[in-house]
Amino acid sequence: MSEPTRSRAIYEGKAKILYEIEGDPEHLILYFKDDATAFNAKKRGSWERKGVVNSKISAALTTLVQKAGVPTHFVRNLSEREQLVRRVEIVPVEVVVRNRIAGSLARRLGMEEGGELSHPFVEHYYKSDSLDDPMLLRQWILEFGFATESELVQMREYALTINRVVGDFFDSLGIVLIDFKVEFGRIGDSIVLADEITPDGSRLWEKGTNRKLDKDRFRRDLGDVAETYEELLQRVEAAIQQS
Ligand code: 5GP
């Protein structure tokens, strides 16, 4: 198999770039940058190896999720910060799963962070930087054609499987999966996970101490951001090697 050659960049997001591949319209190269942003890019930062750490964590967790039956865009790693992925049409609905009260849920309802929920919440947000990703009602999603009823059912099922598999994995490392966001894409009639699973898009708290091992360290200026991401990668890799 010849190594894919990057051509035009078709999308540059806050933390990633997607490149087309010469002679292969069905795949793309996903490049993880060292940049970090928060609050819809109002806060910006960057640290060395951030893209490498996120690419490796995402590849490891995506592989776990794939083994549990969730189809994903991930094909294989091409380098430390580049992945070969399947080309999809992105569904403009971000799916958030919550196990504990934190972040915007705590803020909107004036609640303390950390309280357990009786069951995982599944929420939907409109993928729109210019509108700050507003929360969506189911009837809005259907009325405006952002996703179909059957796509919503499928995305919910996959998101809950990801929650179970990734949640159990982190639990075995002494880490609580508080919440996370994922995005899905269409390939023909099927839905596949088309997003990273990283500490950028999830909340991960150390059991017992509630030390934050995720992007809230950057968002909230908690310090040791790069070191904490590296620590998380080491813990993930050690657990994968043992399994
Ligand atoms: P919240 O709604 O509490 O801000 O976020 C819930 C979860 O989804 C958190 O784990 C957060 O990191 C993730 N999340 C929500 N929106 C985004 C987004 O636009 N980008 C990223 N990377 N993560 C998001």
Describe the structure.
The protein has 243 residues and is an alpha+beta fold. Helix content is 32%, strand content 34%. The chain has six helices and 14 strands. A hairpin with a 3-residue loop joins strand 1 (6-12) and strand 2 (16-21). It is globular and about 50 Å long. It starts with 5 loop residues before the first strand and ends with a helix.
**H-E order:** EEEEEHEEEEHEHHEEEEHH
- In DSSP terms (H or I, runs of 4 or more residues), the helix count works out at 6
Widest sheet, order of strands: 1-2-3-7-6
Q: Considering DSSP H and I runs of 4 or more, what fraction of the residues is helical? A: 25-40%
What descriptors fit this protein?
14 strands; 4-stranded antiparallel sheet; 6 helices; binds guanosine-5'-monophosphate; 243 residues; alpha+beta; 5-stranded antiparallel sheet
Short description:
The chain is α+β, with helices and mostly antiparallel strands. 32% of the residues lie in helices and 34% in strands. The protein contains six helices and 14 strands.
Q: How would you summarize the topology of this molecule?
A:
Blueprint: E1 6-12, E2 16-21, E3 24-32, E4 35-38, E5 43-46, H1 50-67, E6 74-79, E7 82-86, E8 89-90, E9 93-100, H2 103-109, E10 116-126, H3 138-143, H4 149-172, E11 175-182, E12 184-187, E13 190-193, E14 202-206, H5 216-219, H6 225-242
Antiparallel strand pairs: 1-2, 2-3, 3-7, 4-5, 6-7, 8-12, 9-10, 9-11, 11-14, 12-13
Helix pairs in contact: 1-6
